[in-house]
Amino acid sequence: MTDQMRQGGPRRVGQVKEVTSLSNPIVKEIKALTSKKDREQTGTFMAEGLKLVIDALELGWIIRTLVYAKAAKGKPLVEQVATKTVAKGGLVLEVSEKVLSSITRRDNPQMVVGIFEQRWASLDALQPEKGKTYVALDRVRDPGNLGTIIRTADAAGAAGVLLLGDCTDPFSLETVRATMGSVFAIPLVKTDPEEFLAWRKRAGVEVVATHLEGSVDYRTVDYTKKPIALLMGNEQSGLPNALAKAADRLVRIPQQGRADSLNLAVATAVMLFEARRHLLALEGNQ
Ligand code: SAM
């Protein structure tokens, strides 16, 4: 990989290329984005689907490359997105279905794929205030869980997803797929337990940690007075003691039946909708 690519990839300004060969170097670069190392080195990631690409552009995400299937040529929305991409200095590739399948590793790929610049928020950019809810995930490992949590956090109106320690990459293809576009809608922060705890102190954020040994029913907590961070544990080992001890509240979701615990994404959803219950209403019901 060249230095230029390492710094975010060469910007082939405003070109439209037709590609049918799987060994085309640009196609190879895009395929390499399935590896975390390549995503980190280039600072980019792949998102599939026309609607997702349109939404991302509307939200101001920077597109490096737009790839669309020959069969999509001439469709007004695809043409609009292609024009926008070129205007912003990106590259547009018109490719065969075979190339698109190999890029997305799918037999029936979406007609449109966008390569975007990754975007991370910092803790200090979050500006917590009453009514804001954050999800803090300790070492989340499963890409599907993380994608589902990002989607659910967006749907519940959360203000950010904080990734503590060694987490799975939110910009992997599997996670981005599971977010259904919400990866573009919610701030993502990469941090660690120490930084997180220091931030919550200076920002006045109440940490409600979830734990199978929590003695407080999660429905009895007052979530209305302060900004809240819902702290969730790792899929296998749960929350480490140090994080559990540092929390303001240690809550549990009561269970029946034989299951030891809930799936992490399910537990996060239960917590989010309870913590934001006072802020959520059907239209016309507010
Ligand atoms: N064996 C792990 C343990 O002992 O904690 C199970 C972890 S569970 C699959 C993943 C995370 O989901 C937990 O760390 C917690 O944050 C949350 N969770 C799952 N079920 C829960 C429950 N009933 N009450 C509170 N949190 C729960």
TrEMBL record:
<keyword id="KW-0489">Methyltransferase</keyword>
<dbReference type="GO" id="GO:0032259">
    <property type="term" value="P:methylation"/>
</dbReference>
<protein>
    <submittedName>
        <fullName>TrmH family RNA methyltransferase</fullName>
    </submittedName>
</protein>
<dbReference type="InterPro" id="IPR001537">
    <property type="entry name" value="SpoU_MeTrfase"/>
</dbReference>
<feature type="domain" description="RNA 2-O ribose methyltransferase substrate binding">
    <location>
        <begin position="46"/>
        <end position="122"/>
    </location>
</feature>
<dbReference type="InterPro" id="IPR051259">
    <property type="entry name" value="rRNA_Methyltransferase"/>
</dbReference>
<dbReference type="Pfam" id="PF00588">
    <property type="entry name" value="SpoU_methylase"/>
</dbReference>
<dbReference type="InterPro" id="IPR013123">
    <property type="entry name" value="SpoU_subst-bd"/>
</dbReference>
<keyword id="KW-0808">Transferase</keyword>
<dbReference type="InterPro" id="IPR053888">
    <property type="entry name" value="MRM3-like_sub_bind"/>
</dbReference>
<dbReference type="InterPro" id="IPR029028">
    <property type="entry name" value="Alpha/beta_knot_MTases"/>
</dbReference>
<dbReference type="Pfam" id="PF22435">
    <property type="entry name" value="MRM3-like_sub_bind"/>
</dbReference>
<dbReference type="GO" id="GO:0008168">
    <property type="term" value="F:methyltransferase activity"/>
</dbReference>
<dbReference type="InterPro" id="IPR029064">
    <property type="entry name" value="Ribosomal_eL30-like_sf"/>
</dbReference>
<dbReference type="InterPro" id="IPR029026">
    <property type="entry name" value="tRNA_m1G_MTases_N"/>
</dbReference>
<comment type="similarity">
    <text>Belongs to the class IV-like SAM-binding methyltransferase superfamily. RNA methyltransferase TrmH family.</text>
</comment>
